[in-house]
Batch of 4 targets.
Target 1
Amino acid sequence: MPQSGPARHESTLHDSSRPNVVVMHCHDLGRFLGCYGNETVATPHLDALAADGVRFDRSFTTAPQCSPSRASLFTGRYPHVNGVLGLTHQDFAWDLHPGERHLGGLLRDQGYRTALIGVQHESRARTDEELAARLGFDHVDAGMTRAEPVSKAAVDHLGQLVEGDRPFYLQVGFLEPHRMPGDRDEPGVMGFLGNHLEPDDSLGVAIPAYLQDTPSARTELAELQGAVRHMDEAAGRVLAELDRLGATGNTIMVFTTDHGLALPRAKCSLYDPGLETALIIRYPDGGWTGGQVHDALVSHVDLLPTLLAAVGSAAGDEVHGRSFLPLLNGEEHPRRQEIFGEMTYHDYYDPRRCIRTERHKLIANFSSAPAFMDPSQGWMRRCRPKVQTEGPASYHPSLELYDLAADPAELTNLVGDPDHAGVVAELSAKLAEWMTRTKDPLVDGAVTSPLHSKTMNALLRA
């Protein structure tokens, strides 16, 4: 992990007191970066950003899936409220409710020039024109998703954004390290390389604590490390261009991801490996630099109100998150006592909700689905979890409780242990109160998918 002191940056741009804002994000990363203690993955550019910025060690998404997590990140509202309870593409067809406001539109209302380059997965709108109108961007180039061309397009557009006397908001999304099909994949396997990446075991391979250490797992992790290294190189291009343009000092630079790694019992699960996210923020002119590290619980819904507060705007009472701007400014900031996570639909209906405190995690399961949804996207699974997954144990129990201090891999369900009955009761009450207060549709019963309505309408028209 880099330990060098903060770099010096000079602001040579417009004299507005409001900073520029850049949010870079990628798919399926979790905290799989060198700066988070992963010694076998090569991520020098993002490690350097963390060494020169502020790293959050306990940042969590609201949902362990692509679209719902991003919908929360960019609206500051939980998926079951903003309308994105599942994937937005194809016949999954979930979408933001018409009244939902995106960070891009909110900042444009504040006089910012706004641009979206690369991945977006928070809206069903698909053409650049539709996305610009729906989300509030002046410029959209969402036709590419792979990290290299996205980073080059972002670099090209930054030159235009720094001109003039108004601050800008740039949102950059990378596909990698999402799984993608490739000609080198074994039958029944979808790996991480596509046809343009190479595996990377140059620093070795480390298997996450919740997975079995097998030869096939090591092969898969080497692929993942290659995809992450490629993404880091793309992020480095954008960071280097900010420096070259003299824009680094007056720019709030945010790097994060949607959710955890696309490995069994991580992505598409409410265990910590599914909900954990990298979150690195740097703003040299604001003093958010120097390699600071915070261990306070932070939720993705907190980022939007934080950024709005930083540019002198208020998020409004409808936003579920709360600004952690005081924490960034070195001021007193009451610590979050809990974060909440959820999943409703992904590949199939699997409604789950959770509350996570400093010490414990309670998961409530509302269907008898398999114990975890497999994000391997193939028939063959090269990584296998340590927990038993055959027989009756392969289905959800009603409730799960984990002691995160004694059992960080969440392998032992403590529901039913008399010594933990009080914790189960306390967290159950808090989770139920949150669901009721935020008008979670699960309170009233099962949630119907957009495909259900489409199919029923087709039958009625026949």
Note: The CA atoms of residues 56 and 350 lie 29 Å apart.
Target 2
Amino acid sequence: MLDKTKNPARRSLVVNEFTNSVLDPDGPMLGPVEDGGTVIANTAPGCWGPMITPSLRGGHEVTRPVEVAGAEVGDGLAIRIRDITVTATATASGHDSSPEGFCVGDPYVAARCPTCDTVWPETHVEGIGQDSVRCDVCGNPVKPFEIVHGYTVAFDDTRSVGVTLPKEAAEKVGHEADHYAALPDGSHQHSILNYAPSDMPGALVRMRPFLGQLGSCPSRAMPDSHNAGDFGAFLVGAPHDYAISAEELARHKTDGHMDIDAVRAGAILVAPCKVKGGGLYLGDMHAGQGDGEIAGHTMDVSGSVTLQVEVVKDYPIDGPVLFPLVEDLPPMARPFSAEEQAKGERLARRWGMETLDPMAPISVIGTAANLNDAIDNGLERAGRLLDMTVAEVRNRATVNGAIEIGRAPGVIQVTFLAPLARLDAFGLGDYAREQYGV
């Protein structure tokens, strides 16, 4: 029974507060929200905006974590993504470089002004362009990142497509950057639209919004963009305040930073709980992205999100599981049609089998410093989740699935048809039934 005498759990919660780009389990959480309750959030752009805002201590600007009533360490949070809506009318992005001298070890985490040597300096914007962000202390440009080749893109009113802009139009947008970016009131970042890049004008792009960050709070204070095995590897032995060991990274991270394009409206994500209350957080909405996010960044946007969250007791692995939309599944991992099932059952009887094991799609996330190690991580997690050997997971992912790349250098999905009875054994079978009608 919920304790209604103090901080009663809410059926719904509106989130409009952001972190300073650090996910801290010792910081105050919002909520709590009921088990089964709804979270509505207005999210700020990730990546480029925070990357050019030196006072932020990570590569993104995510929402403050939300406590979920009844969630304990060792449980999971099942998150139904009810809606994702882009509110920005334009954004900018591109491939990056990190100029010498503008950071202490990691430009995402510990930006510095090389002129006055202030770490995490407060800054302001003067004009537009790549020298527009300036130190409040000494007035000189502070740019932990530069755009090597970039673009500004404006979206249509239906948020279905965008077009990349020529120089004059990109500069017009840059002079009203916060307006076009639709930055939430609580956001602290400078909009990347101030840079006004225009190296790729006239390209038509599709919009297919999803969340690059969705998950649970790590059990140690960690820069938000580094809450994954690949970016998190940059923290190992780092020269700044957020340095950790490889063992600590594995123990504390929750892999909320996935950049997997299937984490979109209609999907169900299950995240591990490593702190009491889970600490549901989200952010880094992307207007669209190809697998791998090979440029390093994509179209980061402000947007509104509606989630429903419930507790999964005794969740058996330390990373996320995704139930994507059917159209986002690789062909070999899609549920069998009634016709295929009937053919299979006739074939099975011909060979002396009474029935075929019911199967359902599942996508287990793996992360590591590189893609090969991330695949191993995903395979091992899938084996633990389903109580099967890694060799069997390999076979099932080969004949009934695929390995998909979420983000280079090290986020993958092991997606395959799994025995429904194994999913039932760990409390996940009904999510597969809900999602796929199996």
Note: Residues 1-5 have pLDDT under 50 and may be disordered.
Target 3
Amino acid sequence: MAKIIDRPDFERWAARARATGGCSQPVFLTGTVKHVHTGTGELLHHYSTDTEPDGALPVACKTRRASRCPACAEIYRADTYQLIRAGLAGGKGIPESVSGHPAAFVTLTAPSFGPVHARRVRNGERVERCHPRRGARPCPHGVVASCGVQHSENDPRLGEPLCADCYDYAGSVLFNALAPELWRRFTLALRRYLAKSVGLTQKEFRETLAVSFAKVAEYQRRGVVHFHAVIRFDGPGGPATPPPDWANVQLLGDAVRHVASAVSVATPAAPGIPARSLTWGAQVDVKTITSSGTLTQQAVAGYIAKYATKAAECVGTLDRRLLPTDDLAALPITAHARRLISECLRLGALEEFADLRLAQWAHMLGFRGHFSTKSRRYSTTLGALRAARIAFVREQSPGWLPPDDQDPALILAIGEWRFQSQGLSRGEALVTAALTGRPLPPPVTANGSSA
């Protein structure tokens, strides 16, 4: 670290670290940018990374994963917060009147694939015993499916099956793989059910009411995803128009519960694996979102944004793709995650499940959907938020500007860039964290996963 601080170009190195926001795994590029007058062919300005420290320019990695880069993940979290909040309270181009539209915070869970160690808290205080069962008999594998422990929040056994050999690993990874399709069918069926329940045709319904949503996927400790979603009623013109009086949260809640219990997606049969119908779990939660009270618009936005930066790390799996050279038995993952990954690889090798790409998404335990999605008219977009940030940065640090006697419309920027490397050394990461005040990411092991 002392060598970094003592280097003669440290000030430029430090300025670049601040410019990337403290990114812990920046992408280093080499190349040039030329500004040429299209009328005369005159070279007005020339930039080359040869003048940079180490001959390369760092660019932020822009990952959403907090386990890989806390700095870039924080930007993604903040953008997601603004996106969700704008759809509930207005702002970012959305009228504030949207705060008066009926909206609910909906949680759709996965079904059970076998009993797992769990922490249950009654009335927000008393921790109940995990699975107390008097007179429970051993399963075919000789394991008694009972646990009388009051688990702590950090107990590594949370999410682990009481009997791994009885646990439905195939069902777990297939649910993850098909959860996006189950969600798509849920949104379609929700609109159809709402139209039917108020006596409207689909055309009449679209001309009367619009249903907007924003959702995020969260991994449970047992390794399956469930969805948290904001669902909002609008008029036919979107957030700028109020919905009809009969469109209230009670109607929305009844429709969500009915549709969640009705939709399903079928899996194909394969050798030794029967076809099955996957559905949402029995626990469906619908809560009203208000501007004040126990579940405010800000609280919902913060909750969803927090999970937008996480993946399957809580299960004890990898935060990167598996490599052909990886030895599954030697990877630093939990036994439960290892069996889930192994099941992804086993099913992924079968022709019947080829479309699910289970092997490619084994590190995500089969889930390959986007973690956060929204309907088109819910609110602003991440692209719009990023464009506004880029414009602000350019106003603050415009860089090279053409001479006053030159027409900017006649100046062409020609860039040529090549990838050089990615990531900082441990010393560089320490200095970057000190310069920017950003948290230091966990060290990366030899196989590329966070320790």
Note: The chain has a mean pLDDT of 90.
Target 4
Amino acid sequence: MEPPAEPRARRLFGGSARTLGDLAASPFRADRDRIVASPFFTRLGGVTQVVSPGGSGLLVHNRLTHSLKVAQVARAIAERLTADDTHRKLLEKLGGCDPDVVEAAALAHDLGHPPFGHLGERVLDRLARQRLGLTDGFEGNAQSYRIVTSTEIRGAATTGLDLTAAVRAAMLKYPWTRLDHPDPHPRLLDPAPRGAAVPPDDPDSGSAKFGAYRTELDDLRQAREPFVGRILDWQQTVEASVMDTADDVAYAIHDVEDFYRVGVLQQGTVAAELMAWQRESGHLRAVTDAALATAARRPGSAIERLRRHLHRKDGWIADDEAFAAAVEHVRQELVEGLLALPFDGSIESEQYVARFSARWTTRFVDAITVVEQPHLRSGHVLLACPQWHEVQVLKFVHHRFVLARPDLALHQRGQARLLGTLVEALLDWLLDPEEESRLPRRLHDLVELAEAELHPRTPDRIGRARGRAIVDFVAQLTDGQAVAMLDALSGRSGALWTDAFVL
């Protein structure tokens, strides 16, 4: 499918210095190749998805394998939609849906995720705002956008990955800044779009999720300019919506798959939760929120809280019949299916996992549709109601039986402390006048880049540039590099020359 002529021409050339020969060979495929060839993409193999790649003793998803699978699902969705006559005209009206654009955006969407996954994201955001004085703080999606637009240094210039405007627009799951773009800001809408709401425990912080820092705002505007008049200022492009949906699908399936492999998901505990709710749903619905919270460990209570949460947050699609059907379907597929046979590493068990993953992926891809006027909390591309509820239940299983575990909390608290100590150590190094000539070259370059981005009259310009450089530097480390660098800075490493790889 071809997007409308004028927007397509502008999307091909926008923000990308390419020759006519490059354009003839599909600039969007060239974008995909640039992303995959980037060291930032290779780095994702050493970055946590949920559990550190070396911490489980088994092969689990990391950010690289997750990104590859998101790209696979996203392309399947785009190809299905563009082959469907019922969707083609609407897709054209909204700005087009090119499978190459979708795939490239999916491959790039996690480039900015720091060491230790979402935990690292929260820790760096807190440190950036409270310790380093950065109003924008840190956000993984905004960091990904920063990487492809500015922090990939080539020679004397900082050119990013030189991606087309279409792919950059498709990366923007949250096409707004933290506080002030667009105007009015989407966090002020009622309800706020997904990700735009302000955290209740930090009301002055701005949106919880956002797609670009203020330093990349001009680039964001330029990337989305072809879509003006087609979608609202705060809405995802269709291609971004496909990528976002694919990310949700991959997350729901593959995290369950991972923790079945590791042995964390046990049939008995998952069955007890789901089946208790099925038996007692009538009684549980009559229990007050306060009483339900006090009975948090009672089987069935947690999933009843999920049902209520969905009604509060997403009443536009939440449906009790669909929720009950989703619980039953997940019970059949997961409790009586996948978890009935403990994973033992055999070829048979690997095939069992592969069939489970393929069956769910096909089910979700086939349930994708396009709507012209989505709800505020939805994109133009979305799952049908039954499958939307199934994704929520699968994600619940992961949150309830993995993320809430005390042993994982113990592991993550250590990682949080490590990142905090590393940021402080790098700040001390930057502030030491006798060590300026011996700073890591990458850190030195990032300070210069951040300083050049700031207006000359910016208050504490040098301090803010140093803070952003530290955040950029730490966010570009793998889990292992973060550990090794802190060991070296703490004097715990005896391997002098091999420590240089993190510099």
Note: The first strand starts at residue 153 and ends at 154.
